[in-house]
D-alanine aminotransferase
Amino acid sequence: MPDIACVNGRFGPLADAVVSVEDRGFQFGDGVYEVIRTYRGRPFAVDEHLARLERSAQALQLSLGPSKAQWGTLIEEGLRLSDLPETKIYLQITRGQAPRDHPFPVPLLPTTVLTFRELHPLDVLVRQTGVQAILLEDIRWGRCDIKSVNLLPNVLARQRAKEAGVFEAILLRDGVVTEGSVSNVMVVRNGTIQTAPEGPRILSGVTRAKVLELAKKEGIPVAETMVRREDLLGASEVFLTGTTVEVLPVVRVDGQAIGSAVPGPIAQLLSRRWEALVG
Ligand code: PMP
């Protein structure tokens, strides 16, 4: 089977998968999600993603539905059925279907969805030459650590990036870099990697944590600290991390060159270490 979905434990073709128009994910964006990818057909960092799914669900008093072990089994089953070269696995839990009313319905019966689609890796050339980004005001809510399906500000930001002909929108709150619309942001200043600390202003990226570990192993100093707009623009390197972007150098921001507008040595080194880790 090619692209498939699993709705409340039932597998079938993605094109046939449906949920009710009264699902609270549709009505209120009342749900959480995860994106996991495969490398050589095996799902990567499943434990970390399921742990974050559980944290996101708990923060919204949302039931995880299946246990973490059951989610793991569903992932394996979906991969077996879809049998794609590389797969982008999407997991979603919403607070279920109920007549539209803001308070939580009783009893709670979450809707759980998984989709399995072919993953098309980023063009190698894009990875080698780096990408461009724009800076935008971060207009999201105060709990960006929750991976909620309420992605409207992220959608608008990524659309602005697309219209500007660049890859990513890097978000600023009070002049301080939070993260990208779909990625975490790291800058290199005086040989140190600086990135926003974990907390309610950013999503704690699975890739972020692993890349920071790789950096420490290489003896590269890491500071989880506020990075101001001018620090980013004056940085020697900027790069993005994320499940789909992996380690991706940013060579221009708002049209301004970062360093000499080519991928820097630290981003390149970490990109190689990342390949070794996942390969
Ligand atoms: N921040 C945001 C807003 C994201 O959407 C993502 C992608 N999930 C990330 C950071 C990176 O997280 P991860 O490394 O876990 O994919």
User: Anything to note?
Assistant: DSSP finds eight helices and 15 strands in the chain. The longest strand covers residues 31-39. Residues 5 and 12 are 6 Å apart (CA to CA).
